[in-house]
Amino acid sequence: MTIRFVLMVNKQGQTRLAQYYEYLTIDQRRALEGEIVRKCLARNEQQCSFVEHRNYKIVYRRYASLFFLVGVDNDENELAILEFIHLLVETMDRHFGNVCELDIMFHLEKAHFMLEEMVMNGCIVETNKSNILAPIQLMDKAS
Amino acid sequence: MANSSSIMDSFFQRSLDDLIKGIRLHSPESSTSISSFLSKSIEEIRREIKSTDPQTKSTALLKLTYLHSIYGFDISWAAFHVVEVISYPQFNLKRIGYLAASATFNESTEVLLLVTNQFRKDLSSANDFEVSLALQCLSVIGTSDLCRDLCNDLFTLLSSTRPYVKKKAIAVVLRVFNKYPDAVRVCFKRLVDNLESSDPQAVSAAVGVFCELSLRDPKAYLPLAPEFYRILIDCKNNWVLIKVLKMFGKLALLEPRLGKKIVGPICEIMEKSMAKSLVFECIRTVVSSLSDHESAVKLASVKIRELLAEDDPNLKYLGLQALSDLATKHLWAVLENKDVVLKSLSDVDPNIKLASLRLLMSMVSEDNVAEITKVLVNFALKSDPEFCNEILRSILVTCSGNYYEIVFDFDWYVSLLGEMARVPHCQSGEEIESQLVDIGMRVKDARPELVKVGRDLLTDPALLGNPFLHGILSAAAWVSGEYVEFSKNPFELMEALLQPRTNLLPPSVRAVYLQSTFKVLVFCLQCYIWQREEVDASSLAGDLTSLGIDSKCGLQSPESRTLSTHGAIANSEQNLESAIRDSNWPFEDFDNQDALQENHTSALSETEISTQDPVVKLLNLTETAVVPLIWSHEVEVQERARNILGVVQIVKQDILGVGAMHETSGKKDFEVCEITNLFDDLFEEELGPVSVNAQARIPVPADLIFKDNLTDLDLIYSDLQLSSSTSFSLGTSRSREEDNDPLSNGQGREDLESSTISGSLLAQHRKRHGLYYLTSEKDETGSNDYPPATESKYLDKNGDEVNDLVKLTEQSLTIKKRQNHAKPRPMVVKLDEGENFIPAKKLEIKDELLSGAVRDALLENEEVSTSSKFSEAGKPSVERKGKETLVIDGPPDLREHSVTADSEVGNSSSRRSKHKNHSKERRQHSHGESGEGKEERSRKEKKKSSHHRHSRHKTQEKQGSSNNASNQTPQIPDYLL
What we know:
The complex is a heterodimer.
Chain A: E1 3-10, E2 15-20, H1 26-41, E3 50-53, E4 56-63, E5 66-72, H2 78-97, H3 101-106, H4 108-118, E6 119-120, E7 123-124, H5 129-142
Chain B: H1 2-12, H2 16-26, H3 31-48, H4 54-71, H5 79-86, H6 91-104, H7 112-123, H8 128-141, H9 144-158, H10 163-179, H11 183-195, H12 200-216, H13 225-234, H14 238-254, H15 256-272, H16 276-289, H17 294-309, H18 313-326, H19 331-336, H20 338-344, H21 350-362, H22 369-382, H23 385-404, H24 410-421, H25 429-442, H26 447-459, H27 470-482, H28 490-497, H29 507-538, H30 543-546, H31 566-582, H32 595-599, H33 602-608, H34 613-626, H35 635-660, H36 666-684, H37 694-697, H38 712-724, H39 734-740, H40 754-769, H41 799-812, H42 845-871, H43 877-886, H44 892-900, H45 905-963
């Protein structure tokens, strides 16, 4: 399993999206999120985007008020994960048009669908924006 | 009625948007109101979700899922509703159901039993997206039962003509294999086929699955190396290439010949690719798996330097990490970038600092360890507390690794430990403590230095104020007591062990101090007795001074305790004496017995002093300091204090009695001798290290009954808690002392308040050490008078300091010729060497099952050709070549045999027979279980493998021209072609 979880957290440390690829109980999740947010949000722009935590690495990136945090295995390629985060943001940008925190709040399920298209079992399976968005657009049309 | 209410619900139901808006309205206010709003919403949802209207129900579920994923509400109660929503025919609603299922179901969800059929239905749906939903959900919640039941459906989807479905099906395989390893027998072939698919999405997904699988057990996937190689050459997708590189990183470690093959393409990618992530993956592969290929390593180090030169902290961090992987084999690469590494020690980013510290530590060898640690300890003094401790910790770990493997000069290391203990912010007390004791026990030759370091630590009263250092002090006390024969000045040691500020120590450490006091005391008495015997023998007091003055009294081995070396010991006794003369001994003030001498000034005492005087003083000192402790509530402290006091008082009476009789009576003397010898014998036995496994080696006695239930203990503990909660104090027990202590002869000392005793003690002690001239009136705890041991010297670093650092390390990091050490490395006692008592980590059973199944699947692949292959193993090489391509999918060692059979007959035959058995088993298995199905499949496989062969020939032709040059050695079969 390469990607263990994807988190989106705002500046205040509130979780906006949490997708786990391994089963954790709610308490475990709370604890994990708390620890990670404390660690990552304290860092500044001049510091690198990688943090070691417990037995895995966290790769994070900040876009405006939102932090995107991805927990990965130790031998995962950090730069590729940074690219993955960027791809995710670009995809959401394309769909919502200049995506912001509110878009993700109000369309959480769509954000989840996009993630589902991109990642399965913790593996990145789709990296083409049009392919990722195709099913979501179809669903929008249907409803 | 019910119906109308549900219609009302659906009319007035809040949508998810409404819910979120409601939450946002409440969020600025206090948390109580939002929690009440949320619980109200949950109540509402509970009502709505029971609705029979699909729209209402699914909207309620959507809201619930939202609350679960953001606010962490437990919604396992709604599991059955989730199943219901999944079964709706409308896609939009079904989607909500699957989302909720992915988010909330887990292995223990009971309703999972109910979804199998719904899954099956959706998997066979004509709507791609419905299939995708089910697959997606399966990849998250699939249990072993679910995976087993849906295995066949998945098998059909793996060769689906719909690329979207196929891609998802491939990705799900990973979950299915993990949960239900037997699925490998069914699906593995098709999964492999997808590696050759013309559809890039399918290839990408399949590579992802293999990448995950091979990370766990790379060996099983070696036979697939040709497929991966083809992808490495042909694929243009960076994401896929990264995964393939990861796999090769693992495989190349197992099969060295593979390295030769892939090093070319990897270097090419490294040079040409613009994608940093891909280049970095290449670097990582080279560094971790291809470090024997000089050219590749050179190129990688160039690339690493480029990374380090960038301003981007991310690249810098990764560059440092790659370097540290390279350090073990190619130190030159690190040295080339030495400046960057050292500068990174003071980077703004703690992670980068840490990486550069690790890198430095990885460069440490027994030749440069002294210099590097010196630089680092100096640097630690200037860094922030957190990083300072990180430095100390890594030094401790590195140096102690494998029984102090890299430490050659233990005197140096022991003094380094002492130095580290004094670093402000030091929090590694525990580690230093255990290492001090450990070295004492394991390395005989280090003991004199240990005692010296221990003395320095013990005599520094400032250290007592820092709770982090108490462990170190305890170790120092223990070492000083245990190896007191190396001490230059036992009296000073005694004074340090009994100094008033020891009341700052926790009881456990105090107990160690007392025990050490005991040992030192016994040693001194022993010396005294021997010395006196000597005097008696020579009956000339003047001889005493001329006795072996220049012999090094401080450096005797334990054997010197035997009577044959009296002279040297007498000498140390002399030291003791002179130490007392030097000191302004405070106890004279309140010692009745010495009243006579007290009247004469100390100037006179020098001439009048008799040999027993120092001992009497020593005894008095001990007595004064220990008496208050016999009322300690800590049992360890109390017991030891009483022991000491008992001995002191017996011995003192004896010695004084002897003194009064001018050494005429031999009987009393004899008694002291006997007591001292008795205790000396007690401490003579050397304490050694204990094996970690010692306990496990002792068989449990048959008649020993372990109590499972230890509740009885609570009763005892509750009593204990009451009594031990109050710790001892100096002043309270005065009156009792007078009544209960039969050994104290009502001397004047008892009339004094103990507070004044310790007050004057403190003053004397300070004066002696010339440390702090503060008023002695106030304070007996001394908590304020001394500056804290961890005096913060944290200064803001600037560029100059970094440059200094660079300069400092200029020499230390260059590779030196191995120095000729002046003295041989002292012996280090090791106990557990070569003993692996701790059971090796077992592979997870699941993993074993999985890789076993994969091996079987791959063998099955090759089963067709094995029989013919073995019969033809000895044929000329031309024919063999044709055979090779036939069995290309077999495990590597099989193919190895076909070629190298002549050269390593003995070795390979056994292996081969193992494999034969294995494939036989497989065959029996397949015949026994599902005869026809298997037959059919193997026929299919035959077709498939011929297809493989074909395509491989093509690639061979393609690659042939470029690789001709490297294929000079006919002995080694061309692994990939």
